[in-house]
Specification:
CATH class: Alpha Beta
Number of helices: 11
Order of helices and strands: HEHEHEHEHEHEEEHEHEHEHEEEH
Largest sheet: 8 strands, mixed
Radius of gyration: 19 Å
Distance between the termini: 42 Å
Structural class: alpha/beta
Strand order of the largest sheet: 1-11-6-9-5-2-3-4
CATH architecture: Alpha-Beta Complex
């Protein structure tokens, strides 16, 4: 770890305890800024109401820090949209935003559409599956943006317990981060190695920055955004805020394998664009996973892994 990495960690790391919602709301009003919260959701009826309602009531109605809470519904088949509306959020269907551009799938698509569907000068992204949600998720992310003009993008960091259903272990979550993302970042983008949770689903940015970036459709969106921001503006415009702890529903190992494959593809793509990696053969566009069926026979399941992306929103809107 270089001295520069340590310096960035020290200078660009805050705690959510450093910020007060009322003080931030006053600062927001003094600077004539507006704030949007975007919540991407797919079949999250169990948690989306609490997540959205917390920001609507606590930070919207009570404090005035948040101006709009928008849930981007990616075609849920449960009551996600109904529950979110009942909590006071504005619900937009993902495919109804910029429909002339055609449909897209994946988390990054929902985030990109969320930026297009909102108007805030500052945009916060918060996942819909948080079990222990609280105002700190938005207050913490907005703090550096409102108090430091040199910060343009803020990542959340937190402890990630492992929810085993019958047991909540204090550590063990974030397996893709520790086994793939962090080693890749340390090896190829050491200027970002100080970030504790580079794949965290909670982050915020200034609209001008977000509209200048391409958004990868799938799970590689977080890595793509970080790498592109560092390449375009330098790592010093990024900050991180410690939110304490985040509990959510964990995915099974095979799903994490597909997520890791998408992230690896994005890393290789960015290295190729930066002229740091020359591919003699195209990357495999399918991930083969061995699966044992109900009869005990082992066979291969083929999962397409071909990350695509949306262009910078400012180019589309222009």
């Amino acid at each position: 770890m270089t001295d520069r990495t340590v310096d960035r960690f020290t200078a660009r790391t805050w705690s959510h305890h450093d910020f007060d919602a009322d003080a931030l709301a006053a600062e927001k009003r003094a600077r004539s800024l507006t704030v949007s919260v975007v919540i991407p959701a797919l079949d999250e009826e169990a948690t989306v109401g609490t997540v959205a309602g917390t920001f609507v009531e606590e930070l919207g109605h009570r404090v005035g820090l948040v101006d709009e809470v928008v849930v981007v519904d990616a075609g849920s088949t449960d009551r996600t949209a109904e529950v979110a509306r009942a909590a006071g959020a504005r619900v937009v269907q993902q495919d109804a935003i910029l429909p002339e551009l055609g449909p897209g799938r994946g988390k990054g698509e929902a985030l990109w559409k969320g930026v297009a569907a909102t108007a805030g000068d500052l945009v916060c992204f918060v996942d819909a599956d948080i079990v222990d949600v609280g105002p700190r998720f938005v207050v913490g992310l907005l703090g550096p943006l409102l108090e430091d003009p040199g910060v343009h993008y803020v990542k959340a960091t937190y402890d990630r317990p492992l929810d085993l259903g019958h047991e909540l272990r204090p550590t063990g979550g974030g397996r893709v981060t520790e086994l793939l993302a962090r080693p890749v970042i340390d090896a190829f983008w050491p200027e970002l190695a100080w970030l504790a949770q580079p794949l965290s689903g909670e982050y915020a940015g200034r609209r001008a920055l977000l509209e200048s970036l391409p958004f990868v459709h799938g799970y590689g969106v977080e890595l793509g955004l970080l790498v592109d921001i560092a390449a375009m503006h330098g790592a010093d415009v990024i900050a991180q805020v410690d939110l304490g702890r985040r509990v959510h529903v964990h995915q099974p190992l095979d799903a994490l394998g597909r997520m890791a494959a998408e992230i690896l593809h994005v890393a290789v793509d960015r290295l190729s664009r930066q002229g740091r990696l020359v591919l003699t053969d195209p990357l495999a566009r399918d991930l083969l996973q061995p699966v044992r069926d109900l009869t005990g026979q082992l066979h291969l399941e083929r999962h397409p892994i071909a990350p695509s992306e949306r262009p910078p929103l400012r180019d589309v809107l222009r």
